[in-house]
Amino acid sequence: MPDIISVSDLVEVYADGTKAVDGISFKVNEGEFFGFLGPNGAGKSTTIKILTTLLRKTSGSVSVAGLDLDKEAKEIRKIIGVQSQETSVDPELTGRENIILLGHLQQMKGKELEERVDKLLEVVGLKDAADKRAGRYSGGMKKRLDLASTLVHKPKVLFLDEPTTGLDPQSRATVWDYLEELNKKDGITIFLTTQYLEEADRLCQRLCIIDAGKIVAEGSPVGLKKDIGADAITITVQDKKSAGDKVATKAAAKELLSKIPAVIKTVDTEEGLTIYVKNGGLFVPELVRAFDKTDIELVSINISTPSLDDVFLKHTGKRIRTEELVKEVTTGRFGSRRR
Amino acid sequence: MTLLFDTQFLFVRALKKLVRNPILIFFSLFQPIIFLVLFTQLFSKFSQVPGLFPSGITYLEFATPGILMQNAFSSALQSGTSIVEDLNSGFLQKMLVTQVSRPAILIGRLATDAFRVTVQSAIILGLAYLLGFNMATGIAGILLTLFIIAFFGFAWSGISLTLGLRTKSAETVFGIGAFLTFPLLFISTALVPGSAMPTWMQDVSSVNPISFATTAVRDLALPNAFSLSAEVTSLAVIALIALVTMSVTVYLFRKVVS
Questions:
Q1: Size of the A and B interface in Cβ pairs below 8 Å
Q2: Conformation bin of residue B246: beta by default, left when phi > 0, alpha when psi is -120 to 50
Q3: What interface predicted TM-score (ipTM) does this complex get?
């Protein structure tokens, strides 16, 4: 059985008429680390809710491990583990009691359950805090407890909806390491949505990008980046004479760029413009010359080989985390001044 | 079998939460205890007005069954807040992606609420005894009283639960509970006999569920009030109310967790 999840023509229309998922089809192979990426409101969580039997689909067909979602939802629940966006642990139960409860609900009992709980507590590093109430845990500990409790019944497929959102970098790294190990050592298929594109790039064997309810790109991170076939140059601009109207300046710059044959595509970002060209290094002089003749000043130029972020931007027209990009641009400027 | 086990697991979970947060029990006991201690003092002379109250009994004896029912009713109407908590924290969804038996989530919750109301009632009853209350039908009457209360609570917590599932707001559940409790309490025979009310109040009171439940317990409590046929009638009416509320609950619960 090569594909463990198979989705075809999945549609979800909400009661108010919103088409949250608009006819998507994709497959996930057994043992794969699969990334499901998209901007906020693209339909990621809705899709996960359908795949995990929480939400009834409008139409289309879904099977998980060969089980039909419509007829065998209960069987599917036996073999999946789900961690949702919000950390959900019972604050009044201890860490151990939290995992045991989930184990009970998955029909585990006795010594088997006890041993499993002990092992999980150790693996997620909560052995010492096991008998403290979960309400007293830190955010990172709660997240790890949540993860441990979704793993209690040794699921074949693990659905993770933004598993590291709201975690500090150190806890985030711990969670990623553990997920990687689960996938590599235990062969658990992982279906992941995340905003951390670098992690998705490193961990996922295959990705789907969803935007406005439709799948806009699919493939391996390497393949998707290659498909861009171009380097990304991010520029910020301003009017030479006055601070001026930023939007107009940007529009003028875009207009100018569209006349340069080497430019494959120009995309608006919050900070400036991202230009895709075949060979970034060679293009920079031409870019500078082009702007020299105008009233538009190039404030900063930043060349990068395509990242997953660029893949994302190309297909959705949106950056996933603007605050990180702002940081990158600022450091870029600072660095060039020192040079 | 799964249903039974799952219900037990969820019952135990809710019980642990309750024991670890006992302040909740005391908060909901505050109001009935105020009623029990202050109202019965405030109105102690009223029960001596000839013709209004059954003769030869104290106001405490008359009002205790009503206060018990008021507590059962208002506590039950707050039980929806717990499911809202699970819904908003994502814990309900976490349970729903397991194999857990769906009805167990509902029954486990209702059983816990019925248990909580029974414990509260036992405390109120104990306090009433200290103040001079007596159950004419003795220990059997006490047990039947607690059973009626648990059953009555069971019926109404279902309504609150589905309200919680629909509105996803603990404040709404709490608000509606408080909004319903007082009018229904004061237009019932919980604190005064029907004969002491204006006609329109008597009319409303005669179809008020709190009146039926109060009568069922009052007939057990007051001397020489018990008659088997009246008791069976009261119980049947309560059962009918429970049947209606439970049908609504199950229907709405199914819609939400399907």
A1: 63
A2: alpha
A3: 0.85
